[in-house]
Amino acid sequence: MAEAYIVEALRTAGGRRGGALRDWHPADLGAAVLDALVQRSGIDPAAIEDVIVGCVSQVGEQSFHIGRNMVMASDLPDSVPAVSIDRQCGSSQQALHFAAQAVMSGTQDMVIAAGVESMTRVPMGTPVILPMQAGIGIGPWPKSIRDRYGVNEFSQFTGAEMMAQIYGFSREELDAFALSSHRKAAAAADSEAFEREIVILEGVDKEGNARRHDRDEGIRADASLEGLAELKTITANGMITAGNASQVCDGASGVLIVSEQGLKQHGLTPIARIDNLTVTAGDPVIMLEEPIPATRRALQRSGRKLDEIDLYEVNEAFAPVPLAWLKEIGADPDRLNVNGGAIALGHPLGASGAKLMATLVHALRARGKRYGLQTMCEGGGIANVTIVEAL
């Protein structure tokens, strides 16, 4: 089978809800990443054969085909097509999979996988809330589904609490993991470890004054266990708080995927090679533990041993997710989310998949490492796994 290569992988620095990126329309936010991919790689934008965009809340400013709107807002020519997809939190990781599959099949030679989510301008849950407020329908889960699974709704907060209990984690362990995420992210930002992957934008401060936006706003360098312990739990008698869960975030990301033929034709130098693409599904009620069996399958299908994987990016949707993954996979915690994760850096839903890939590839190259594995839990009990080889 033909190979698929990553030529460039970029992301915006995360913006807090109502923060530095609050004035950016999501189409413009995503367009900024598309333009940066073209500029940094030096490709002819007309050579791009498709743009695949992940976005979860495709309503309001993210409706009416956000992928095509990103292209229209960018410097790419009108001849570049686009498609918008939703695999919940794994949307842009799946966009990467679709792009790689197109290249590996020989169907296309140059595809951009991207993602965008403005959680300030299109709040999480809006696609469900708006019709319900208007008295339209009964929501996404009909009686047949609710009866089958014995629940009235599927909640990731419930799933996170279930994972903490099933895998035996204490509140103190969850908070300690959250603190480590902030400390690693702060160290990475201070050492300019993110400089290569971040697209610098013009943001605004609290007063609305223009300022350079090149640092993830969610990082709390002054975080402490004492401060985290004071936060209230989301549910009564639970362990999940705003401190040990991922942060609401505005952001965009993108990865340029090219075939070997495309590399030669356009004189491009790849920074990574796609080694394995895996997606699995399981229990939609607990939903967040699927990265565990998905990782096992990815390793088995790739023929790689865990010891061969130098770095892991496991999305920190909630602290129990990467902690359970470490425990069950038997992975080295020192290789996990080495520059911090979504608890500190934010989780811009549809943009997180390509965002994590940008961080993973550049972290591998900066450390002179070879193989990296990325995975994340997704609504409905789905998980993507991507293994890459840094070049």
From TrEMBL:
PROSITE patterns, alphabetized? THIOLASE_2
The UniProt entry annotates the active site at 89 (acyl-thioester intermediate), 347 (proton acceptor), 377 (proton acceptor)
UniProt domain Thiolase C-terminal: residue ranges? 268-389
**InterPro entries reported for this sequence:** Thiolase, Thiolase-like, Thiolase_C, Thiolase_CS, Thiolase_N
Q: Which PANTHER family match?
A: ACETYL-COA C-ACYLTRANSFERASE (PTHR43365:SF1), BLR7806 PROTEIN (PTHR43365)
The UniProt family comment states:
Belongs to the thiolase-like superfamily. Thiolase family.
A GO MF annotation of the entry reads: acetyl-CoA C-acyltransferase activity
Q: Which domain of life is it from?
A: Bacteria
> To which species is this protein native?
Sphingomonas cremea
What Gene3D superfamilies does the record tag this protein with? 3.40.47.10
Q: Is Acyltransferase found in the keyword set?
A: yes
Which one Pfam family would you cite for this protein? Thiolase_N
* Transferase in keyword set: yes
UniProt keywords, alphabetically: Acyltransferase, Transferase
**What is the official name of this protein in its record?**
Acetyl-CoA C-acetyltransferase
Supply the CDD domains for this chain: thiolase (cd00751)
Please report the stretch or stretches of sequence annotated as the Thiolase N-terminal domain. 5-261
